[in-house]
Amino acid sequence: MLFGHLARGFGMTCPRDGLPGCSYVDSLDCQHTGPATVMLSWFWQYTARTVVTALARWCEREGRDTYQTFVWQCALCNNQFRIQENMAQGVPEPFDVFREVFEMRVRTTGHVLALPSPSDKPICIDRIWCVFELWAALTHGVKVDVVFPEVDELDLSAAFLDTGSSVEAMKKLWTVFKHLKIQDAKATVEADRANIFSLIDPEANTQDDLEQSPHIAALNLLVAQKPQVWCADVVRTHVKSHLDSGYIPLLGVLRKITDLLTLVGDYAGADTILRRALHVLEVNGGDNEHVIEVLSCMADMYLWGYMGSRDAEALELYSKVKDIHDIQGDAPPLTLLTNMCIISQRQGHHADVVQLFSLAEIVCRNAGKRMNGGMLHFVGRSYHDKGLYSKAMEFFLQADASFRARGLEFTPAHAWLLGSMGALLHDQGRHDEACKNILQARACFEASAATGHPGYTELVKLHADTALILS
């Protein structure tokens, strides 16, 4: 199809060099071609169906006219006759020429569309030239989108018909891209691989250097985020269509959907889904378990996603959940009481914090459970706010013991506690001890890739203040 006597361009004069044999795109009628506005990053092992269905789905989702969307794809736009002739003569294209052509194409189209298929083990991410295309796009500030073929999208959508497979489908996709390592990408010509990685990080000369390179790590993160956003978008669209038809997903699915959407920062999308679910439950008379799940998801999102600006709304929703438990004669979950305690502490309502803690003690005693570290942490913060430093440290130490007993000492929640302990020591004038806690907390946050956590933001400012005093 692309070269040889069966190729569409066989026997046709190339309009670019005047020689026999032209590219596939130059063999088409002009009504089917035009200046490309998007460049496809793909791999030769993909089938025509994989490419075509992916592009069709992308156009559909983006509201693009397929007759007016022109895509640059190397297999179709490069003259494969010339490439094959050069290869037969042992004259490979020099790296610098390839680089110049690729970078120029990325800049002129202004939009790269990556096709990482199959979704459970993307081939293109294993190929160095695909990595280069993504690096060039991100380096030049070019828009990058990710699209998957129809079969991948339909498989993911179908998985949301039951709780178990929906969770596993998300975990599988998320893990694939979370652990993406472009430093393992391969090349037909090893020199190309070395040249491309030297562009990304000139200081990385060995595989160990690539593993430790902050430039490679940053690119891994950026590339991974794109398919994760696609995954969240597919899920949101699919679930919304089900809700619009009056269908409520099985218990647990809405929680996973909310977690997924908030992970990619789509708080508005999560809010829309949850409000729609609440409306359907109200219209159809949904059971209390579903109502509790929806209200709790909304409250959690307001608590953790809006840095305190929607605490009042979150507390109102938590209170509704607690009322449902009270009416049913159920003990409120410790997580519910802890989250209400967090908000009450942030609002400066110490009496409410103490009351919630007393209720949590009763729940723990009746259930034979140990108090969770989160509750102890924020009761301690509330005492710190009141200037009762000894009482605050007493609760902090209990919280620390609770986290360690559960094997949670390397989590962001424990890092937040360490930061709070550092703040208390700072206010007591014990700056050397405070600095030790702060550094430990910061290392924990960063090792957990939790630098977006609200506790990390607090910690950075505290670190700067303490360092200034010690300098």
UniProtKB/TrEMBL annotation:
This is Uncharacterized protein. It comes from the Eukaryota. Gene3D superfamilies: Tetratricopeptide repeat domain. The lineage of its organism: Eukaryota, Sar, Alveolata, Dinophyceae, Suessiales.
